[in-house]
Amino acid sequence: MAHDEVNVRSAPKLDSEIISVISQNDSYPILEEKSNWIQIELNDGQTGWVMSKLIKKSEEADSDDNSMTTSDPVLKDKRVGTVGVSTLYVRSSASQQAPIIATLKRNYIITITNERNGWYEIDFNGQTGWVGSQYIINENSEPGSTQETIIIHDDTNIRSEPTTTSLIVKRAKNGEVFPISAKKDNWYEITLANGTSAYVASWVVQTSNQAISNMDSGSVQHKTIVIDAGHGGYDSGTIGTQGTLEKSLTLKTAKLLEKKLKDAGANVYMTRDDNFFVSLQSRVAISHQWHADAFISIHFDSFTNSSVRGNTAYYYSTIKDQKLAADIQSEIEKQSSLPSRGVLFGDYFVLRENKQPAALFELGYLSHPQEEAIVSTNDYHERVTEAILSGLEDYFN
Ligand SMILES: [Zn+2]
């Protein structure tokens, strides 16, 4: 993969704004060098930053005039990163429309081999694919300071191969730390003090990233979440232009959210887990019965004007509910493909009568034909449930 195009950024950081794209063999004056970045002057006099590994400096013996051209290809020092969301789609090319070729779980370690317009080309599991760069965290280019595994139980088995039946080469103590050189299935390949490689099961250890992310973001672990799938039974809710029933979409979304929250260690209760009618009073009673730390009500919208679209979060109490609604909506805004209509006051029974923190989410308009199609996809359900999970983590931080 040749770097026929190189991004020029406003600052020497991968998450800074792309202000221009330059082509291979173009030449620009160098103004400054800073760690892995080079500041150049563009033809219009603007200045910007490019990754130094993507370019080559010209070596004109007769001139002190430093300049550079974009070089080919290989990133000499490959960067590693970690998946920062619970499910990450890997696509065959750098486009939201490209086919999904794999999904990766949170904390999976990938190697970044290329970068284009907010996408990373990654190596994982012997394959290559593209992911949105915003979902990758803890990027690191410096060899030796890559991820570490932290032993959290005494007598953790360190093995010769990534299987539970292979030879135990060492028993590690709580608190011992080993650098991770690779990840194979659910095993970390680690480097022992004597320089040899060995394996430890990922499910019995923590990584340095996890230790960090546990500190700076909250967790839903041991929290009680009541998920309220709107409508049900004879109450179908709104009906889309193509006949989509709101009650079916709310249940499907609620069940996916239930799974993600349980996987993350939350205690989850559903106001309904099948297609039956539940009164609004009963829904609130379930929230009270379990002393919900958060009550999440899921709905889909409709309006007489079929051009109205987007998702909306509602709260009733500014004290009890608003932060919950806002924390989640800000993640929905980031992760869903629909426009956000914001966080609004809503006089809904399940919010007004609820003593527990509660928020209601209208996750898109079934009266908008295009939006009805989007919100019916698994991709959309993945995105919004992932967003609600992240939003809850922020809320409990
Ligand atoms: Zn509804």
Automatic annotation (TrEMBL):
Return one GO MF term.
Answer: N-acetylmuramoyl-L-alanine amidase activity
Keywords of the record, alphabetical order, are:
Cell wall biogenesis/degradation, Hydrolase
Q: Which InterPro entries match?
A: MurNAc-LAA_cat (IPR002508), N-acetylmuramoyl-L-ala_amidase (IPR017293), N-acetylmuramoyl_amidase_3 (IPR050695), SH3-like_bac-type (IPR003646)
Top enzyme category: hydrolase
State the superkingdom: Bacteria
The UniProt record lists the SH3b domain at 1-59, 78-140, 145-208
Q: What is its EC number?
A: 3.5.1.28
Q: What is this protein called?
A: N-acetylmuramoyl-L-alanine amidase
